[in-house]
Amino acid sequence: MAWWKAWIEQEGVTVKSSSHFNPDPDAETLYKAMKGIGVGSQLLSHQAAVFTLPSSTLTSASPWGGHSRCIPAGTNEQAIIDVLTKRSNAQRQQIAKSFKAQFGKDLTETLKSELSGKFERLIVALMYLPYRYEAKELHDAMKGLGTKEGVIIEILASRTKNQLQEIMKAYEEDYGSSLEEDIQADTSGYLERILVCLLQGSRDDVSSFVDPGLALQDAQDLYAAGEKIRGTDEMKFITILCTRSATHLLRVFEEYEKIANKSIEDSINSETHGSLEEAMLTVVKCTRNLHSYFAERLYYAMKGAGTRDGTLIRNIVSRSEIDLNLIKCHFKKMYGKTLSSMIMEDTSGDYKNALLSLVGSDP
Q: MF terms per GO, please (predicted)?
């Protein structure tokens, strides 16, 4: 499945709107979960973490006044998981409004104060509006020392023109600066050029029409810009990869392989290096099959020593209401194991439980 088709695949959604949704009881459940108090079924979920001190163990100086008292438990993380991972993003926004109306507190800020670590990072990510979340990820990738080029490449190469425009709008509203200008300030050379080109969203022509003559010419131009000469004409690669439609590029890749006797990926590997190579290869991968690209991102986020939690969280959260089910199918075909099994091996605790809830059942 090429990238421009993935946005209309309803069967790909793992997190859907809850039927019979009412934000008020959800907000109350979250409030109780973070106050350690509850009634009915909520109290039962706390009982393992609540204990009673017998009066015989208390002195008259005890702050409990010489009577047995129930000490409220801490945060009920499972209740938070049950609510927030089983509601759509639009429903979470309604829950946040209800939470503030009922309890006079900002839900996201309250979650931040009650949770910690990777679990906090995941739950807070769920509370962002999608475009604001991606704007935040881009901003975080560029702030401070060093730049996380991989994050910028991933987002810019895999989103449609309309989505990029919404991300740019959210970025400017939230951070008071232009995303394009910040990318230009934070990167340089051909990497800067390809990122700025990708930001324009010029690959978005979804028509199935392909001019065979132009596709052949583009393939010949790519061959002439790389394999045929000493050195590489990087701008020719950038221009064709970033301004041609996905359907057109697929034909170009076919023609290129006939001319060069090697794939476009092999040529990019031999002709470029570093972040520019990663950016070009990402465009090719997203053009060929967006679901396979994200399956690969998730796999390598967990493969080997350590976990790239930022990549894992971002891609599960951002794809859960788009095409995560389809990504799961490709993951299993490509790596011979399910995404959920790898999450179970590589993560733990509430963080693991929340990720598995978002991912859903195995294909």
A: calcium ion binding; calcium-dependent phospholipid binding; phosphatidylserine binding
Check residue 52 and report its DSSP letter. Answer: B
DSSP letter, residue 320: T
The amino acid present at 41, given as its one-letter code, is S
At residue 4's C-alpha, the angle toward residues 201 and 255, to 5°, is 90
CATH number at residue 244: 1.10.220.10
Q: Which of 340, 348, 357 is nearest to 299 (CA)?
A: 340
Cα–Cα distance, 12 to 114 (Å, whole number): 32
How many other C-beta atoms can be found within 10 angstroms of the C-beta atom of residue 15? 25
Q: Is 244 helix (H, G, I), strand (E, B) or coil?
A: coil
End-to-end alpha carbon distance in the chain: 17
Domain that holds residue 279: 210-286
Domain count, the chain: 2
pLDDT of residue 9: 53
Residues 226 and 261 reside in one and the same domain: yes
Listed as ranges, residues in the chain with pLDDT below 70 are 1-11, 36-73, 204-207, 228-231
Q: Are 75 and 36 in contact (CB under 8 A)?
A: yes
Which positions make up the binding site?
A: 302, 304, 306, 346
In a domain, 260, yes or no: yes
Please provide residue 70's backbone torsions phi and psi, each rounded to the nearest 5 degrees: -90, 120
Predicted local confidence at residue 53, as pLDDT? 41
Annotated binding site for Ca(2+): 302, 304, 306, 346
Beta strands in 31-95 (DSSP E): none
CB 173, CB 181: distance < 8 Å: no
